[in-house]
Amino acid sequence: MKQLDFKVFEEIFENYVDKFIKKSQGNEAKILNFTNKRIHSYHVRDNILKIAKEEKLNVDLFIVEFIGLFHDIGRFYQYDKYETFNDANSCDHAKLSIKVLEDEGIINMIDYEDRPYVIDSILMHNYQDLPKITDKKMYIYSTLLRDADKLDGFRSISVYERANKNLAYFKNKSDEPLISDYVYNNILSKKSVYKYDLKTVLESQIVSLGYITSDVIYNTTLKIIKENEYTKKMFYKMQDTPRSRKIYDFVNNYIDDRLKI
Predict the structure, then answer these.
(1) pTM above the 0.85 mark?
(2) How many CB atoms lie within 10 A of CB 90?
(3) pLDDT (tens digit, 9 = 90+) per residue, 21-55?
């Protein structure tokens, strides 16, 4: 496609986010969560570009960068209205992101033939499990976005303090050092976990480790996890229990096996 300078889209993104931050002056929790989502969006944009380039994938880097930056654009309206990022208690944030792109006229700046890749990859980044995709390009864009999104989740968990109840991620979660049988068994079976039905802070943290075995597609993603010691940093923020330790060791062994270390 004939591409605009991507700075145009960064300005659109910044102007949209700024409206919510300015509106929330004096509300510490809202500003914190809006700011975190802004930071997350840029990290995902950087991650997805890095993975696509390192894997030498045949993709349009404009589309890759666009879906990275705008995949969570609906999160700002979601948190402003519901004060939660829990889709089960509010709305599907991926569908909301597409609605924002449409309502703001941003999707109209994308070539018509490229819009399905933008729309569907953003919608599918929120699926618990990726469905069977026969379109090779759609599969690549979708898996790239899911890997890049999860990768920044690992960074986030490694810096979040579980005691900070202003973080929407931990809001209304118990601080008991418990991991349910469902979460524990699914992770050790390399199966996905429904993230909106977690009861404890520890479960919310440990599920991110589980994504590594159930959902990460590209070895570049695993290499970045390894290079940044994300599993170690994430585990340091968690309560060290027999179950969390078992999962931690299981995931690290999985990474080493995939990378043949």
Answers:
(1) yes
(2) 17
(3) 999 999 999 999 999 999 999 999 999 999 999 99
Rounded to whole angstroms, how far apart are CA atoms 107 and 30? 27
HSE toward the beta carbon, residue 40, CA cutoff 13 A: 24
pLDDT tens track for 220-240 = 999 999 999 999 999 999 999
